[in-house]
Design brief:
Elements: H1 7-31, E1 47-51, E2 54-63, E3 68-77, E4 83-90, E5 109-110, E6 116-118, E7 122-126, E8 160-162, E9 169-176, E10 182-190
Parallel strand pairs: 2-10
Antiparallel strand pairs: 1-2, 2-3, 3-7, 3-8, 4-6, 4-9, 5-8, 9-10
Length: about 200
């Protein structure tokens, strides 16, 4: 005797099968290595890097075509202890940080400065806002007109960078008073914040 299935049972079985197929397909899409949710995303144009409670955010150089620029960044101290930004300099040749660098410049020079306070629970902007004190200089220190010439230069006008041109990446070492140093690449962009457009072919 043949078995007769009700139309309601057939519909329920078909719907259940379709739902199972759809869930498997969606799971496969989400688990794919190239899935959008699996990729790290950095909304800003600059570099983000961490050293313990110190978080460097959107660090980049804005420069002219002849390689004269200024460092821009926010440095957040998420910890309960004050720290300082002591130095930033081009990494020695051959230094690796696990990132793929672009067009590497030759010699790049960052202006020297007195240690910049990174107070616990605050964010410090580079360059600082007009009139904002950032350097923890001693009373005996006299800022030089050219901060690149003295080890205790004035950082109230920012940190100048010479030698990096728009479109290049600079491998740098960022040194702090307490936190471990950070080695990373930072981009050099044009002063209007955009990467340069290649000139049209002649």
């Amino acid at each position: 005797m043949p078995i007769t299935l009700s139309s309601r049972f057939v519909r329920r079985t078909a719907l259940a099968g379709a739902a199972a197929t759809l869930s498997i397909a969606l799971a496969a899409c989400g688990a794919n290595f190239g899935a959008q949710t699996a990729k790290p995303y950095q909304a800003a144009e600059g570099t983000n890097a961490d050293s313990g409670s110190i978080k460097v955010r959107n660090m980049l150089v804005l420069a002219t075509a002849d390689g004269k620029g200024q460092l821009h960044s926010a440095i957040v101290n998420d910890g309960s202890t004050d720290d300082t930004l002591v130095k930033i300099e081009q990494a020695p040749p051959g230094t690796q940080d696990g990132q793929a660098g672009g067009d590497q410049p030759g010699q790049v020079t960052f202006s020297k400065f007195a240690p910049i306070d990174l107070k616990a629970g605050t964010s410090t902007m580079l360059p600082p806002a007009a009139g904002e004190a950032t350097a923890s200089a001693t009373p005996t220190e006299t800022p030089s007109a050219d901060p690149t010439e003295t080890p205790g230069g004035d950082s109230s006008k920012g940190i100048s960078v010479t030698g990096g041109k728009p479109g290049q990446m600079i491998n740098v070492v960022i040194t702090f008073g307490q936190a471990g140093p950070i080695t990373t690449y930072i981009p050099v962009l044009t002063e209007n914040h955009y990467s340069p457009t290649p000139p049209p072919a002649e």
